[in-house]
Design brief:
This protein has three helices and 18 strands. The protein has 221 residues and is mainly beta. Bound molecules: flavin mononucleotide (FMN). Flavin mononucleotide binds next to strand 6, strand 8 and helix 1. Keywords: Flavoprotein. InterPro entries: Flavin_Rdtase-like_dom (IPR002563), Flavoredoxin (IPR052174), Split_barrel_FMN-bd (IPR012349).
Length: 221
């Protein structure tokens, strides 16, 4: 979850190392005698893959939003969304979403998305700082919507992983959390998976090869 709209997060291509089970650990997070010990920040920016969510607006137009609060549990995806966002409103109303995963090489595109507000909520001093408001974010970024097979929101053709999904449940953060009211936890079920050949394991059309898939990681500003 972002800490605020006014401070763009740093998007980077991140070097990764692998452990035996195929999980990734970032360089710099290895244990060392000088390891920092402290209290958790309000937001733990551990560096998680960026996803681009496609949802449908009430007027039938497409809404595109970048999120990093996304993780997977079997055929399900769990999304943490600001509950005042268009993505949240659209997902609650239509119960459909496409979760697109950009690759590391698409950092520049996602960085440009940060400066295009989907509605009239450009930060103070926005235009001078390169922010603007436009509904057609996907067109401005030069991305291509392609029809989905099981849901109405289209997929983003340029993303190597595209997950069509439907909303199964919405959860509230635990009582006492600093987040209640601000965010909601959406549990979506993947109904169709589209994988680019570049991320597939040899001879396994249904398996992602972790050595080929290079996710775009968001780091703290
Ligand atoms: C890299 C990045 C990560 C973000 N992660 C989240 C997130 O996990 N959850 C969320 O609700 N918004 C996240 N945002 C903000 C949304 O993309 C979006 O700007 C916000 O929901 C308000 O826009 P909207 O009302 O048009 O949806 C992120 C933005 C960026 C650029």
């Amino acid at each position: 979850m972002r800490r605020g709209r006014h401070r763009p997060p740093r998007i980077r291509e991140q070097g990764t190392e692998r452990v035996a089970l195929g999980a990734r650990i970032s360089r710099g997070f290895v244990r060392s005698p000088s390891m920092h010990v402290g209290n958790p920040q309000p937001v733990l920016d551990l560096g998680t893959p960026v996803a681009l969510l496609c949802t449908m607006e009430e007027d039938g137009s497409l809404h595109l939003a970048a999120v990093t609060s996304a993780w997977w549990m079997g055929p399900r995806c769990v999304l943490g969304l600001h509950d005042v966002s268009r993505a949240s409103a659209n997902l609650r109303r239509t119960r459909e979403v496409v979760v697109n995963m950009p690759a590391a090489g698409q950092a520049e595109t996602v960085a440009r998305l940060i400066r295009v507000a989907g509605r009239a909520a450009v930060p103070d001093g926005g235009p001078e700082r390169g922010y603007r408001c436009a509904r057609d974010r996907i067109g401005i970024l030069g991305l291509t919507p392609v029809p989905s097979e099981t849901v109405r929101p289209p997929r983003v053709s340029e993303c190597p992983i595209q997950l069509e999904a439907v909303l199964d449940d919405v959860h509230a953060p635990a009582p006492g959390s600093p987040l209640p009211g601000d965010v909601a936890i959406f549990e979506v079920r993947v109904t169709r998976l589209h994988l680019d050949a570049s991320v597939l394991a040899d001879g396994r059309p249904d398996r992602i090869d972790p050595d080929r898939w290079r996710p775009l990681i968001m780091g703290s500003p």
